[in-house]
């Protein structure tokens, strides 16, 4: 039983109040065929919309089975429209991009009916209304009568208790109109059917009850409800459209999209392409920057020398509680030069590298340091057998100490002392393995696989220039690091000389085996900082120096005022120098630090300056040499500018994409207002409507994003080729799969953000307004 109590409805049009319905009191039976008649503007359709829940009354209340539906929640209204009300529209209001079958089935999907049951029920309804052969047709392919029958089938899909029909025969010919009236009359046997019509003849011949409206008032009711009839109760059940149904609906909507939307989607994809290009160029530029910075850092490492160095006054770091006085006058003259003692601009500083400082360097961040080379003036005495069985002596001489000579014969290590990371990153292994132990040495060849002929001959290979030597003949070669006490002996004159007792050296317990474990060469783009030839670990130098300092020959030289090899008298400085040449250095005479890039270099310099700032005496401070400081700063400023430009391009392209997508999705929502109205009329919850357009926006974003990213990938090679021919710079664009995935996700988020707001706003409008679009 449906009851209208004092229903009133008015609209404000241009600040004027227009009364459409006024104090309407009507009660309807659960099973009857009612026709509402009246002139245009009498309020017939408005009354029908209020009963359907498409618009709210200004006053009064609606009772259904004793329940005041004016107090319904949004979910309860949706349930009422989906399960209680079936609505037949005057203009059919079928969803154009769905087939007849899908238009009928969607009402059941909204009501939560499982797909199999919904399909079976849809087939039954279409067969009942003679549309079996039209179930796969689209609304535009049907006649007016066929469309109205499809609407009637959809209205009855959930077996509603009330069937509302707004001018169901207005657009039909006489034959089709009579067929629709016959069907409605049949349906009135099992439910309440309320029909708004202008056709008095059809109404008087077929309906059970006629209600006349005039100027918003009930003028006549031919069969009013009797109070003696039994009332009923009502319980609302919420509607919910499934995710699969939402995806299917969104896909069908996109499939029927207009060419304008296709072009807008392509425009959006082009925007994603531009963003991708900006990212790819930034990646390529970063790679070029990294290569450039690495090359500059390799050619100009940070050098720390033991001994006297010259430091600019501006680099002197004050000790604790110390204030440095600036002796340089601050006065400047526009028309005169200033006499000044230029020697005041720099000072001499004695660097002393000790264990505490070496321990400090182990605390450097490994991510900042490519490698640290420790140069020690230590002679390594090696012997080995050659193929003919001869024992060959080999002395590896101390490193050169010239400032410009920064090629190393020791492996650079990480701050943790690990060798392999630096070699694996910068040197290709041609044969054997990378060194892992202090006693592992390698042979370094140049980019052409060449090594000095004299070196090969010196270590026992009978070879001529340009003659090849198999890797297998070199890898695995074993040398013996000989102790000073075995390497030198005292002759009959009481002087020391090099021994020729090679057998004794080989068999001595003091000798340490050293193995050539691998052959390496610089990687393309790697750091080429090792000298061609035999290279070894700084630990091997330290090991040899520690053994040499306690040897008898070293002790003898330290205690003597003569050269123990020649017997000639020497002064104290010369004697000290001879002792050091025999025993080697305890600590490195030079430390070479290779930063990974410019930022790493600045962090390393700050680390070294912080160490000096914590020192309590000037002697403890250790200063470095940085020959590329000004070039580094200038290059860094330039590179930052280019990076900012690329990021700006990406940001502008992002705003452009957002604008395009906002316009496109807003256009989709705006052009779908009628469809949204139909969905609301069928009982779809407003958030489910938002979900459908959320899915549609997600699909657009995913598709456009993938098109843009794929286009970026496909264009990378030809664009790089064109740019290389133009600029000579290789691989300016570098496609990165992670960036591609990020851009697809970014595209999806952008479309959802730009489309969700208009979808939510539209879904909250009254069904009446949306249906009148």
How would you describe this protein?
With 773 residues, this protein is α+β, with helices and mostly antiparallel strands. It is 44% helix and 18% strand. The chain contains 24 helices and 24 strands. The strands form 6 sheets. Strands 15, 16, 17, 18, 19, 22 and 23 form a 7-stranded mixed sheet that branches.
Poorly predicted regions:
400-404
The largest sheet is:
7 strands, mixed
Number of discrete helical segments: 24
The total strand number stands at 24
Helix percentage range? 40-55%
Which overall shape is indicated by the principal axes computed on the Cα atoms? Answer: elongated
Termini Cα gap: 32 Å
Strand content: 15-25%
Q: What's the overall average pLDDT, rounded?
A: 81
Broad structural category: alpha+beta
What gyration radius follows from the Cα positions, in whole Å?
47 Å
Write the layout of secondary structure elements.
Blueprint: E1 2-13, E2 16-28, E3 32-37, H1 44-52, E4 59-64, E5 67-68, H2 74-84, E6 85-88, H3 100-110, H4 115-128, H5 144-155, E7 162-166, H6 174-187, E8 192-196, H7 200-206, E9 209-214, E10 217-221, H8 243-255, H9 259-299, E11 302-305, E12 307-312, E13 346-351, H10 355-361, E14 369-375, E15 380-385, E16 391-396, H11 420-426, E17 427-432, E18 440-444, H12 453-458, H13 471-474, E19 478-481, H14 484-487, E20 488-490, E21 496-498, H15 502-507, E22 512-522, E23 533-535, H16 538-549, H17 552-559, H18 572-583, E24 590-595, H19 598-614, H20 629-671, H21 673-681, H22 686-727, H23 737-763, H24 767-771
Parallel strand pairs: 3-8, 3-9, 6-7, 7-8, 18-22
Antiparallel strand pairs: 1-2, 1-4, 4-5, 9-10, 11-24, 12-13, 14-24, 15-16, 15-19, 17-22, 18-23, 19-22, 20-21
